Amino acid sequence: MAILGDKEYFKGIETIKYEGKESDNPLAFKYYNPDQVVAGKTMREHFKFAIAYWHTFCGQGSDPFGPGTQNFAWDQSSDPIQAAKDKADAAFEFISKMGFDYFCFHDYDLVQEGATFAESEKRLVAITEYIKQKKANSGIKLLWGTANCFSNPRYMNGAATNPDFNVVARAGGQIKLALDATIALDGENYVFWGGREGYMSLLNTDMGRELDHIGQFLSMARDYARAQGFKGNFFIEPKPMEPMKHQYDFDAATAIGFLHKYGLEKDFKMNIEVNHATLAQHTFQHEMQVAANAGMLGSLDANRGDYQNGWDTDQFPNNIQETTEAMLVFLKAGGLQGGGINFDAKIRRNSTDMEDVFYAHIGGADTFARALLIADKIISSSPYEALREKRYSSFDTGKGKDFEAGKLNLKDLYEIAQDNGELTLQSGKQELFENIISQYI
């Protein structure tokens, strides 16, 4: 593995290798073996693990009660272009040492936003050219790009849903530049996370008009990207709240309904995040299943929340029960449609050593790999599938089969109910299903 820059930022750490679950080496994978074939694909192909530029290389451990605790060596230059190049050097060194193939970014993760729109464009073009060379030298690819249309105060009332048209136009210009950068870097997908697309109070909000505006806006973005030759997927990343009280992409079902209403369902799929699912009072696996049912399981953000907190803590995934159930959905759906698994997670504020970011990503990758192995074994070797099929066996023959085929009407159901008389309860066997998961874990 070659270091891709003039300076080595993660000194003393070599390429992370798979050593198996008996290894005591904290800088080795215990379960993630990229070349191991599971259910017809290698783990590398299943997961397409990607590093989140914003958390791993931009987040410095700040919180509402204090400044950052992580002092990164690549943040020392006062020149924004040089600082962006240093960050890119560190990023590609880290991704290479992790042995991953992908990264993801927001536009102003790559380089600091300028004082003017023109200056921001100039900076983004410059760093895009630099990262092109990093990609060419390393073979690392771009899973998806996106635009940060939520942090700047101009977006305090939303971006595409802002009541001021001039802000909507500025967001459009910014997203054009982010799409240009994504296309220039051969990005495989593009994500829209409507960080402030929602409302704080209905008293001052015309919800119908705002929804029409974002539908129009996304159509324009799609049409522009397609005209530039972009062939990838567009993803919506649902989130129910925080920062807005109510966001328009509340959950997968809401976002899917929105896409169908505005004729976007052929181009857009879901990017599901664990922590966003739990904030919506769902589970990760529920949101994945909703997307899969719609043929829109596009990509995943891997993290977890703190279940005692009501906000997006973006911790690294380590819940093997949750992830195993998610991988059951994953395998049954045939995997992801175009996307991969992006570690939208950050090390904790009191984790301040450079090696900590390796430990975090190793643990996250191992959690998903172990869950994949368990889920594959549950599907192939346990009674799990047969038990699920048995629950619905009354629809496989006779009148049940006729019902699914649309051959019955309501009067037919009435007559069947009369003939059946009182029914015997059929157990759902929930505890048995839970025990099977525990047994194979």
TrEMBL record:
Subunit structure: Homotetramer.
Residue numbers annotated as active site: H106, D109
Keyword Magnesium: yes
EC number: 5.3.1.5
Compartments (UniProt record): Cytoplasm
Single annotated GO MF: magnesium ion binding
Chain positions recorded as Mg(2+) 2 binding sites: E273, H276, D312, D314
SUPFAM superfamilies in the record: Xylose isomerase-like
Residues that bind Mg(2+) 1: E237, E273, D301, D344
Domain of life (superkingdom): Bacteria
Gene3D superfamilies per record: Divalent-metal-dependent TIM barrel enzymes
Species the sequence originates in: Snuella sedimenti
Taxonomic path: Bacteria, Pseudomonadati, Bacteroidota, Flavobacteriia, Flavobacteriales
Cofactor-binding details, from the entry: Binds 2 magnesium ions per subunit.
GO CC terms in record: cytoplasm
One example of a Gene Ontology biological process annotation: D-xylose metabolic process
Main location class: cytoplasm
Protein's name in the database: Xylose isomerase
Gene this protein is translated from: xylA
Catalytic activity as recorded in UniProt: alpha-D-xylose = alpha-D-xylulofuranose
Family: Belongs to the xylose isomerase family.
Keywords: Carbohydrate metabolism, Cytoplasm, Isomerase, Magnesium, Metal-binding, Xylose metabolism
Cofactor(s) for this UniProt protein: Mg(2+)
HAMAP family to which the protein is assigned, alphabetical: Xylose_isom_A
